[in-house]
């Protein structure tokens, strides 16, 4: 479930607002997205995956955390899902690369050979 939007990191690009399938966010007066309907979050991670500056944290739970985290609480977890899937400059896919058919030596799916 979406837990945090870091106002310090956010660049007000609105990508999270646009990709959210359940309209969880509203835009604040300063253009920074605000979590307005947290209970509607489906924990799909689309907002975190599409944030170009790792300003979001989605917890892998379907209920809000008992105590809302702060940026300091999260350490390296802020934007961690995006890093794990290899999205962003200089990143390569981690464990998520195992999804889909294996790639052969040419970089094409071994199922296409």
From TrEMBL:
Keywords for this protein: 4Fe-4S, Iron, Iron-sulfur, Metal-binding
UniProt name for this protein: NAD-dependent dihydropyrimidine dehydrogenase PreA subunit
Keyword Iron: yes
MF terms in GO: 4 iron, 4 sulfur cluster binding; metal ion binding
Source taxon at top rank: Bacteria
Region (Disordered): 92-113
Keyword Mitochondrion in annotation: no
Positions of the 4Fe-4S ferredoxin-type domain: 1-30, 31-61
């Amino acid at each position: 479930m979406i837990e945090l939007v870091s106002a310090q990191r956010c660049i007000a690009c609105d990508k999270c607002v646009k990709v959210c399938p359940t309209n969880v966010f509203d835009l604040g007066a300063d253009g920074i997205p605000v979590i307005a309907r947290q209970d509607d979050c489906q924990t799909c991670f689309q907002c975190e995956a599409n944030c170009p500056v790792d300003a979001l944290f989605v917890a892998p739970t379907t209920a809000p955390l008992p105590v809302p985290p702060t940026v300091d609480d999260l350490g390296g977890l802020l934007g961690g899902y995006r890093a794990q899937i290899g999205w962003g400059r200089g990143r390569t896919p981690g464990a998520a690369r195992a999804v889909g058919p294996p790639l052969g030596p040419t970089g094409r799916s071994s199922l296409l050979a």
